[in-house]
Write a structure and sequence with these properties.
- By secondary structure, the chain is mostly helical.
- It has one domain: Rhopdopsin 7-helix transmembrane proteins.
- 67% of the residues lie in helices and 4% in strands.
- The chain has ten helices and two strands; from the N terminus they run ααααααααααββ.
- The radius of gyration is 20 Å and the shape is globular.
């Protein structure tokens, strides 16, 4: 975490229970953590286009919700890192729980009939979200949130491994790429927390470009945003494959992955 040597900016004193390693208000008085803020764009813009494409393709609403949930996480994280206010912190952290619950629902409903609704699973995930929300608002302990979020991510990892091991082995590339990118982001998140003092001292002496490159919490946003986006693609690919939609991964502008598919042939 960040040492208490940061300047005060437009948004006033920090009220969040977390203050990350990036130097506060270093680039502008209007953004507390500049790089940690703008790095959220990867979680905001691509999922919006994914949701629009899902609507056009008339996909099940849960996948539209998955894309939009990732966008909400990005917007909440943007507000949190821009202001370092407690209310904005909640706007970041609680949607992380809610979006993961949507991801879990999508993953466990991949092999059901089209447009079916699993009310038992839906009720369980909504109840889990409500309990986590109430406890977190009461205890205000970031570790509690991190453990709950970790449980959901671990559930998604196990489900993904099951699918690429026993159901669709040819999806290992997409599934493991998503997982590897996410775990790399988690590694850099820990490096940023553990070695914050050393990183700050290095940035005081290093050229600006190297200083930006060592903003590892911003890299956490970029990598976990990309990993989460790829996870939605993996879930969507699995689902449309089961529905015989013949999905394919295409790359927009030769670099950004999207799912394209054709409806099943009518006999």
């Amino acid at each position: 975490m960040a040492p208490a040597v940061d300047r005060e900016g437009y948004w006033g004193p920090t009220t969040s229970t977390l203050d990350w390693c990036e130097e506060n208000y270093a680039l502008t008085q209007f953004v507390a953590e500049f790089w940690n803020t703008v790095s959220n764009l990867i979680m905001i813009v691509p999922p919006i286009f994914g949701a629009i494409q899902s609507i056009r393709d008339r996909l099940e609403k849960r996948y539209i919700a998955a894309y939009l949930a990732l966008t909400v996480v990005g917007m909440g994280s943007w507000c949190f890192h821009m202001t370092l206010k407690y209310e904005m912190q909640l706007l970041d952290e609680l949607p992380m729980i809610y979006s993961c619950c949507i991801f879990v629902y999508c993953m466990f409903e991949c092999f059901k009939t089209k447009s079916s609704i699993n009310y038992h699973l839906l009720f369980t995930l909504v109840l889990f979200s409500l309990i986590v929300t109430m406890i977190y608002l009461k205890v205000k302990e970031p570790i509690f949130h991190q453990v709950m979020y970790g449980m959901l991510v671990f559930t998604l990892v196990l489900r993904s491994i099951y699918i690429v091991t026993w159901v669709y082995p040819w999806l290992r590339g997409l599934g493991y790429t998503s997982l590897t990118i996410f775990l790399l982001g988690f590694l850099l998140w820990n490096v940023d927390n553990i070695f914050c003092d050393s990183l700050r001292n290095f940035r005081k002496r290093a050229p600006p470009i190297l200083g930006v490159a060592t903003q590892f919490h911003a890299w956490w946003h970029i990598l976990t945003g990309l990993g989460s986006y790829l996870h939605i693609l993996f879930s969507l690919y699995t689902r449309t494959l089961y529905l015989k939609y013949r999905p394919k991964v295409k790359f927009l502008f030769g670099m950004w992955p999207v799912i394209m598919f054709e409806p099943p042939r009518k006999h």
